[in-house]
Design a protein that fits this description.
- The protein is built from 14 helices and no strands.
- The protein is mostly helical.
- It has three domains: 96 residues; 95 residues, no CATH class; 60 residues.
- Helix 8 crosses helix 11.
- It is flat, with a radius of gyration of 24 Å.
Length: 280
């Protein structure tokens, strides 16, 4: 059976079979951020869109020096992932500001009463049908906090019927019920662990017997560990709809939503830049 290294070398000689080769590499590239950094499916999709245009250059630059192509691919993806992660961390601040998502699980939901710069700053940037489709993806991405009073304005920018937009929003809000239940479960675990930790701290202050103090300290360590674990799991529960859910309700491929949001965020960077918002 021909190895991946042999297939790459064959492609370099003949420049044939690129589609099959990219198809074989796609799952490796797509799953790389999940294996390395534990990212979710939407983030993996963003990384794949980011790296896809570089795949041909990557294939052309490979040189057979005794190591398999998989080793070279892993090294390149690791380097690219570090660059992408830095950029993603910066852009997520703007993304969260633009969507008005919850920054803290404890805070009550706030509606997107004002989109930064909308509609005056956004409308001139939404020119083509593809831009309007991608903007619809953006609207649905923040459907959990969408202000119904803004639906008409946003629907006008995306060139969709307002009733259809509201129907889509309601469907996506219904899909998040299970995530809200999961979040509440973790919140109860965190609160229970916090209460146990505080009780143990009070008991330790009044305890004089060394052996009993040691037992209480061990219990305190376990309670704090449970509390940290619950908080970590709470942070991973996203209330915003996933790209897959948006694709499902619209009847489009998930990759279309991934790439559409990726390029729209690039296009609207000047509108959603936190530095611009602070200076405005």
């Amino acid at each position: 059976m021909e190895s991946l290294t042999q297939k790459v070398l064959q492609y370099q000689r003949t420049h044939e079979g690129l589609r099959d080769l990219v198809g074989e590499l796609a799952p490796r590239v797509y799953q790389f951020p999940r294996r390395k950094m534990g990212w979710d499916e939407d983030a993996c999709g963003d990384f794949y869109v980011f790296i896809h245009s570089r795949l041909i250059r990557l294939l052309d630059r490979f040189r057979d020096q005794g190591k398999p192509f998989e080793s070279y691919l892993g090294a390149v993806l690791s380097w690219q992932l570090r660059n992408f992660a830095r950029e993603r961390k910066r852009s997520e601040r703007a993304w969260n500001v633009s969507l008005r998502l919850q920054a803290d699980e404890e805070a009550p939901e706030q509606s997107c009463t004002h989109w930064p710069g909308a509609p005056d700053s956004i409308t001139p940037l939404i020119r083509s049908d593809a831009d309007r489709r991608n903007f619809l993806f953006l609207i649905l991405k923040c459907s959990c906090t969408l202000d119904i009073e803004e639906a008409a304005t946003l629907a006008g920018i995306a060139k969709v019927d307002e009733k259809r937009l509201l129907d889509l929003v309601q469907v996506l809000r219904g899909m998040r019920n299970r995530r809200e239940t999961r979040l509440e479960t973790f919140r109860c675990r965190r609160n229970k662990a916090f209460s146990q930790a505080r009780l143990l701290e009070v008991e330790m202050k009044a305890e004089t017997e060394p052996l009993r103090t040691q037992v209480l300290r061990a219990g305190l360590v376990r309670a704090r560990r449970r509390m940290r674990l619950a908080m970590k799991r709470m942070a991973r529960v996203g209330l915003a709809p996933t790209n897959r859910e948006i694709a499902l309700v619209l009847g489009v491929p998930k990759g279309t939503v991934d790439s559409g949001l990726y390029w729209l965020k690039k296009k609207l960077a000047s509108v959603y830049d936190p530095d611009n918002l602070r200076s405005a």
